[in-house]
């Protein structure tokens, strides 16, 4: 089947199903034969992507009068390549782990049809990707949603918390939440506040490299997370990710004290203001710092999250009017202040009015390490007198998540302030050792 | 027989996807341990070569250096494709009359042997449909690619393979010829021509390992076999010729196997450990004695064909052993090796009974390993290879060995291992860029040769030898410093390449060559000794005087030379009387043996000629 319709060659080519084998002769006489594949998102105008028989993709600029011959229709389903599939090993019996998938790099693969990332949803596909997961017992996949983590918000935290409770009540001995890494630490903080009386570990895990890459850290991270989820004593919300650049050691971070500190490294996640709770090496879990043990009660969901809180990052030159406009109408604001928790005194006015209106104002440090303390400098003392709550060594993001949680529990600013001051999930500690933490 | 080449040349433009310099380093700043696993590409199909490597389940240790960064560690996304490297690739495309693409798309080629931290090599097709002309023939150049070089393997142990990241990411231009080469000598000539063109760009790295060739060889009735990573251009013809010989020998074995109706049964391997304990020596004895296992399989009809006496050394037994080794055992033992390693007589009979191969036309294969799983895997590979022997010759990738032979490396990768590198935007090749490159194209080798002949009064052959040796630039630099052109050419195109023998010669710094020539010009040694001084420098002499000393080229004074000539003439008076001036030639040979390299040859001739003349002159006694 071959002929040239009246239409522009480019329009004809774009209408073809992906995978169609075509022969294209351009105006300068060059002849190309290959399968039509989706264009790169950054491809130029009228540039056709062809996959040559060698496997290389090439970009060919298509002129209106180029000759197009359809050599072979697109295969119905891929090109017949074998998909790695995995049936559940029969030996996988005994206590099981619930694997909640929420999207993100760890549960995704590159989709060449759209050029984007496609979530992996089916249990068989996930276990096919990660065949080592069931080495020590069964894993049941619980699809929650498919979202890149920058799209995840407080209602999603509630959903994850409820599904976690649900999974435990169905008999899981531990829960792993596979999550995008961008906002993983917000979610880990949220789950830390939203879950009480846990009967086992809730382990959040992600990947900095997608699993279609042979070097993906997802393989080893998820294996380590499942290993920890089988731990018989620990029962709190933690994050498990690479501890360094090697694939042999994984850090266990408390859910409220962890932060993504690098945009791309495998060991991007770091505990702030103290060491991780422990490490995982191979199938060995080393818990070297105090952790929350299993509860004998039933797991409880303590939501919902409130609304109307935000974070304000103070910087030199920030006009008080701009800051005031930004927080207008908010029920609570977490300020990431300079140093020990300061803003220019010119901001005192709007802060006082906000507090007077019942807005909860919380001060943290943008240093991300160390405490916010009002008593060292006069500015801090002024702010504290104005009613700003100093959050100690709580991370700004954790303070924001806790503030939302507190606003969900009470409309009374005094009650909210009490909740903010009361340690709940290891989010603040008074003692800091003189160790060096990278 | 048909052969095609892929020439890979490193560029000196800096790394392809980051801002690191394209330089090796001996400083290791940190090490990182990683594992890789095979993953599906675009079609979710797992490539055979990738699956094979991943099945070895190895740990890889990466050494970071000051010339590598987070990109090489697979810890940061790649930068955009380096425009300077792309310019060189486009320049080559224009020199080879190829058609550049409108838009260059970077692909990921799955490679899980650990040589890339990411598990894939980034590669892009830049141009198609070129050609290169050599000795009056035109060879097609179907593709010109730009890709990143792999990490450098620096060690291997049972714990894993150790790679250094300095080489990872250095740009490589890959130029592939069509399968149109008909013998080893032609292969070498084509590779040399492409090498000269690459060097003409002035943007290539020099030295050992900076240019590597893959040789694809197919024989009639055989299969495509890729010999990967030949570093010495001068050995290309050997690899082509030995590969052809291997395929021919194996095809002959196949005919015999077919005639005998040989077969490869599916029976479970049998445990032979108890039969060998106490009798076998070598690796099998070790395995049997130290808690390991020795497993065996029978191969009916293969007897005598694994290592036929007196035939080519490319035997089927070696093929089986290579596969077994690739699966992680030290090697294998087969029935054509009886008697050896203590396996003889009654033990052989017991083995044949146990393995169900009683006849001498039948073979058996034994593999020893500390763990049964490893031995099973190895025998599985052996069986696969034996089955392939019944069908013909398997398509595979082979590693070149220093002796000109090759060794099994892995299955030949297919198209399933390629998928788009989404982290790198495609690069449009705009016509203005091509116009600019076309306007500034470097001198082609033919033109350069004509210029060398014209400007330096070299012969065409000498100019060509300089180009083949990749020494035009240094030749012009040294000649520009006032050294005599013929002498510089002799040094660069003959003495230095010869000093390496069959291997790549030592990479002399240009400053040292300058000193060497200056020393020669000062008469500290004679031209005839140049080769010996070069060899001494290559062998480690620190300075030119040191090399002269080590070469035994202690200079001789004019007076000493004259005395030596006189003495020679006296000793040979009867011969001179008989032959007259014709006595000069034999005497010159004798004298040169004494003084080569210690005085200039012309001067020696002159001194000897006058001594002979004096002897013959009337009145001489």
Which characteristics define this entry?
heterodimer, A: 438 residues, alpha/beta, SH3 type barrels, Rossmann fold, 3 domains, eight-stranded mixed β-sheet, five-stranded antiparallel β-sheet, 23 strands, 23% strand, B: 621 residues, alpha+beta, Gyrase A, domain 2, 4 domains, eleven-stranded mixed β-sheet, 21 helices
Protein model, in words:
The complex is a heterodimer of chains A (438) and B (621). Chain A has 438 residues and is of the alpha/beta class. Chain A folds into three domains: 9-72, SH3 type barrels (Roll); 97-301, L-asparaginase, N-terminal domain (Rossmann fold), CATH 3.40.50; 309-421, Rossmann fold. Chain A is 23% helix and 23% strand. In chain A, the strands form six sheets. Chain A has an eight-stranded mixed sheet, with helices on both faces. In chain A, α6 (320-327) links the parallel β20 and β21 (332-337). The longest helix of chain A has 16 residues, at 154-169. With 621 residues, chain B is of the alpha+beta class. Chain B has four domains: 2-224 and 415-420, no CATH class; 260-392, Gyrase A, domain 2, CATH 3.30.1360; 445-550, no CATH class; 558-616. In chain B, the strands form four sheets. In chain B, strands 1, 4, 6, 7, 8, 11, 12, 13, 18, 19 and 20 form an eleven-stranded mixed sheet that branches. In chain B, strands 2-3-10-9 form a four-stranded mixed sheet, with no helix packed on it. A four-stranded antiparallel sheet of chain B has the order 14-15-17-16, sandwiched between helices. In chain B, a hairpin with a 2-residue loop joins β9 (152-157) and β10. The longest helix of chain B is centred in the middle third of the chain and has 25 residues, at 236-260. The radius of gyration of chain B is 30 Å and the shape is globular. The mean pLDDT of chain B is 88. The interface between A and B is large, with 44 and 56 residues.
């Amino acid at each position: 089947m071959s002929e040239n319709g009246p239409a522009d060659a480019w329009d004809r080519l774009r209408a073809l199903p992906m995978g169609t084998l075509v022969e294209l002769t351009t105006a300068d006489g060059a002849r190309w034969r290959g399968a039509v594949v989706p264009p790169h998102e950054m491809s130029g105008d009228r540039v056709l992507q062809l996959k040559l028989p060698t496997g290389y993709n090439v970009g060919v600029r298509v002129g209106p009068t180029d000759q197009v011959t359809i050599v072979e229709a697109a295969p119905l389903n891929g090109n017949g390549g074998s998909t790695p599939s995995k049936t559940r090993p029969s030996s996988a019996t005994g206590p099981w782990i619930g694997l909640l998938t929420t999207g993100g790099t760890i549960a995704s693969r590159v989709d060449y049809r759209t050029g984007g990332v496609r979530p992996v949803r089916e249990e068989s596909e996930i276990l096919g990707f990660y065949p080592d997961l069931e080495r020590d017992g069964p894993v049941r996949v619980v699809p929650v949603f498919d979202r890149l983590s920058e799209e995840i918000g407080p209602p999603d935290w509630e959903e994850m918390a409820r599904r976690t409770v649900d999974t435990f009540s169905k008999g899981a001995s531990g829960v792993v939440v596979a999550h995008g890494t961008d906002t993983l630490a917000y979610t880990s903080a949220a789950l830390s506040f939203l879950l009480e009386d846990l009967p086992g570990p809730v382990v959040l895990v992600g990947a900095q490299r997608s699993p279609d890459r042979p070097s993906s850290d997802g393989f080893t991270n998820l294996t380590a997370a499942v290993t920890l989820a089988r731990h018989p004593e620990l029962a709190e919300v933690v994050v498990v990710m690479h501890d360094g650049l090697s694939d042999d050691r994984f850090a266990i971070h408390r859910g409220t004290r962890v932060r993504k500190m690098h945009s791309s490294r495998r060991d991007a996640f770091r505990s702030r203001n103290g060491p991780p709770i422990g490490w995982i090496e191979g199938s060995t879990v080393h818990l070297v710092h105090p952790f929350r043990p299993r509860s004998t009660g039933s797991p409880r969901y303590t939501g919902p999250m409130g609304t109307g809180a935000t974070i304000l990052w103070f910087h030199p030159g920030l006009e008080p009017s701009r800051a005031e406009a930004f927080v207008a109408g908010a029920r609570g604001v977490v300020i990431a202040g300079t140093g020990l928790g300061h803003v220019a005194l010119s901001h005192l006015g709007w802060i006082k009015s906000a507090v007077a209106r019942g807005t909860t104002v919380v001060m943290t440090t943008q240093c991300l390490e160390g405490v916010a303390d009002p008593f060292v400098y006069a500015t801090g003392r002024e702010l504290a007198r104005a009613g700003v709550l100093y959050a100690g060594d709580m991370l700004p993001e954790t303070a924001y998540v806790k503030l939302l949680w507190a606003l969900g529990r009470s409309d009374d600013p005094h009650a909210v302030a009490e909740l903010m001051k009361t340690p709940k999930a290891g989010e603040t500690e008074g003692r800091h050792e003189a160790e060096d933490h990278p | 027989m048909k052969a095609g080449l892929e020439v890979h040349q490193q560029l000196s433009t800096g790394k392809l996807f980051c801002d690191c310099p394209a330089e090796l380093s001996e400083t290791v700043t940190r090490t990182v341990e990683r594992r890789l696993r095979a993953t599906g590409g675009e079609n979710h199909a797992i490539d055979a070569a990738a699956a094979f490597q991943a099945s070895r389940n190895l740990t890889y240790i990466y050494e970071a250096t000051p010339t590598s960064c987070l990109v090489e560690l697979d810890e940061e996304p790649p930068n955009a494709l380096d425009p300077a490297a792309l310019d060189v690739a486009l320049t080559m495309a224009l020199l080879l009359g190829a058609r550049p693409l409108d838009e260059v798309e970077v692909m990921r080629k799955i490679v899980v042997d650990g040589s890339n931290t990411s598990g894939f090599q980034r590669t892009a097709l830049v141009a198609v449909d070129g050609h290169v002309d050599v000795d009056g023939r035109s060879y097609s150049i179907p593709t010109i690619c730009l890709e990143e070089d792999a990490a450098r393997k620096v060690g291997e142990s049972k714990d894993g393979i150790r790679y250094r990241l300095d080489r990872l990411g250095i740009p490589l231009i890959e130029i592939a010829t069509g399968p149109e080469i008909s013998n080893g000598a032609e292969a070498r000539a084509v590779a040399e021509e492409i090498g000269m063109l690459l060097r003409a760009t002035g943007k290539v790295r020099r030295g050992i390992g900076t240019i590597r060739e893959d040789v694809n060889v197919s024989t009639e009735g055989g299969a495509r076999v890729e010999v990967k990573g030949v570093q010495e251009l001068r050995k290309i013809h050997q690899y082509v010729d030995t590969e052809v010989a291997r395929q021919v020998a194996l095809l002959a074995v196949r005919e015999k196997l077919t005639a005998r109706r040989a077969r490869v049964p599916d029976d479970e391997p049998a445990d032979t450990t108890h039969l060998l304990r106490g009798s076998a020596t070598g690796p099998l004895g070790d395995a049997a004695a130290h808690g390991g296992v020795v497993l065996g399989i029978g191969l009916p009809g293969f007897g005598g064909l694994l290592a036929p006496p007196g035939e080519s050394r490319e035997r089927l037994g070696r093929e089986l052993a290579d596969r077994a080794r690739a699966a992680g055992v030290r090697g294998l033992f087969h029935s054509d090796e009886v008697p050896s390693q203590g396996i003889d007589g009654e033990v052989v009979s017991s083995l044949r009974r146990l393995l169900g191969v009683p006849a001498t036309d039948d073979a058996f294969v034994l593999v020893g390993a500390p763990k049964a799983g490893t031995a099973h895997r190895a025998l599985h590979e052996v069986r696969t290879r034996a089955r392939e022997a019944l069908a013909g010759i398997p398509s595979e990738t082979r590693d070149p060995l220093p002796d000109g032979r090759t060794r099994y490396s892995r299955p030949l990768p297919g198209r399933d291992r390629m998928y788009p590198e989404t982290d790198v935007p495609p690069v449009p090749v705009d016509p203005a860029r091509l116009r600019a490159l076309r306007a500034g194209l470097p001198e082609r080798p033919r033109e350069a040769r004509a210029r060398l002949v014209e400007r330096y009064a070299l012969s065409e052959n000498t100019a060509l030898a300089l180009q083949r040796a990749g020494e035009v630039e240094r030749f012009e630099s040294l000649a520009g410093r006032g050294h005599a052109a013929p002498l510089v050419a002799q040094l660069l195109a003959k003495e230095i390449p010869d000093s390496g023998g069959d291997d790549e010669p030592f990479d002399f710094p240009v400053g040292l060559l300058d000193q060497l020539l200056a020393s020669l010009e000062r008469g500290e040694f004679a031209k005839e000794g140049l080769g010996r001084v070069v060899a001494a420098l290559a062998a480690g002499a620190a300075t030119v005087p040191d090399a002269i000393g080590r070469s035994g080229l202690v200079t001789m004074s004019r007076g000493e030379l004259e005395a030596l000539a006189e003495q020679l003439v006296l000793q040979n008076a009867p011969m001179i009387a008989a032959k007259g001036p014709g006595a000069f030639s034999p005497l010159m040979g004798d004298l040169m043996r004494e003084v080569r390299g210690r005085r200039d040859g012309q001067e020696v001739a002159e001194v000897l000629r006058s001594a002979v003349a004096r002897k013959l002159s009337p009145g001489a006694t």
